[in-house]
Write a structure and sequence with these properties.
Blueprint lengths: L5 H17 L7 E7 L7 H8 L2 H4 L2 E7 L3 H10 L4 E3 L2 H9 L4 E10 L3 E4 L22 H12 L14 E5 L8 E10 H6 L1 H20 L1 H12 L4 H14 L8 H13 L8 H4 L3 H9 L1 H6 L2
Parallel strand pairs: 1-2, 1-3
Antiparallel strand pairs: 3-7, 4-7, 5-6
């Protein structure tokens, strides 16, 4: 066997070390695929954590995907295409009633930041009688929001078909009492949570830090919202930031009243089905982070 000169051995060792370094910050980090469902401010906790490097800071090599609806996100989770995704309580409840192995582990926004946008001819709630309301899909968050907004005006929801948007008639942010709905929620499968609890915990830690940044760094956050939404209108950015910053919860527990309403809705569509809050929610990680002082520490920075 031919012996190499010492200088070549040292050079080879240096090349090996440098190769590991060039493989990037992913060395020693948990690989995970995440998904968020919109590019506007309410989903900001997901893409802000990526933009500001919070996933990496907490030991994650995260691949963040954009999947534009809860129903599709739920399907991706069940298929194993992503490990943690944003999903609203209504979609998760319907999926769990149908047999899906899903669980919500945190909810960052427990209300619906929706507005009812109408044609200029609509001057009052009375003018809506006999008109139709546009939503994305039956059972979606927009469906729930549309029904809540119409009832908030003292009317009963009508058929759902698209309308041309012109002006805002009412927003859920205008309600005197917050409309409880688990809207922006970190959701995973029960099997993945059991196998990779520490990885899921890292995701929540990154999101909590992203929420703190969102709430306390207004101008920087508005720039990030503009970057992802590709909307630079200052009035929009100001309104979007203000609404989401107000609604983001410091401790991201899942709203029980809001979830139980969605459970009732899901069960009503499947006679004989049974579902409890505990069947689709596991708040143990959030409570652990709260008890350990992690959340207080982040907000005292």
């Amino acid at each position: 066997m031919m012996k190499l000169p010492r200088r070549f051995s040292i050079l080879g060792a240096l090349l090996v070390v440098s190769q590991f370094l060039l493989l990037g910050g992913a060395w020693g980090q948990d690989k995970i695929r995440l998904a968020h469902s919109a590019l506007e401010s309410s989903n900001g906790v997901w893409y802000l954590a990526q933009d500001r490097g919070f996933y990496k800071k907490h030991g994650l090599d995260a691949d963040l995907l954009f999947i534009p609806s809860t129903t599709t996100s739920v399907s991706s989770l069940v298929a194993g295409d992503v490990q943690v995704a944003n999903a609203s309580g209504g979609g998760v409840a319907s999926a769990v009633v149908a047999g899906a192995d899903l669980v919500m582990v945190a909810c960052y926004l427990n209300s619906l930041p929706y507005e009812l946008v109408v044609n200029e001819s609509i001057k009052s709630p009375e003018d809506l009688k006999g008109k139709s309301i546009g939503i994305s899909r039956v059972g979606s968050a927009s469906d729930v929001a549309a029904r809540a907004l119409i009832r908030g005006l003292g009317l009963e929801p009508d058929k759902q078909v698209p309308i041309m948007p012109y002006k805002i008639l009412i927003s859920t942010a205008d309600f005197q009492k917050r409309f409880e709905f688990p809207y922006i929620c970190a959701t995973t499968t029960k099997s993945y949570l059991a196998r990779q609890r520490e990885t899921v915990k890292k995701v929540l830690m990154a999101h909590i830090e992203a929420m703190q940044f969102f709430k306390t760094r207004k101008e920087e956050t508005k720039k990030i919202i503009a970057k992802y939404s590709r909307i630079n209108n200052e009035d929009y950015l100001e309104a979007a930031y203000t609404a989401s910053a107000k609604l983001y919860d410091v401790v991201p527990l899942v709203t029980r009243p809001g979830t139980e309403i969605q459970i009732k809705e899901a069960i009503s569509r499947k006679p004989g089905a049974q579902l409890r809050f505990e069947d689709m929610v596991d708040e143990s990680i959030v409570r652990e982070l709260e008890k350990s002082g992690f959340i207080d520490k982040i907000y005292k920075q």
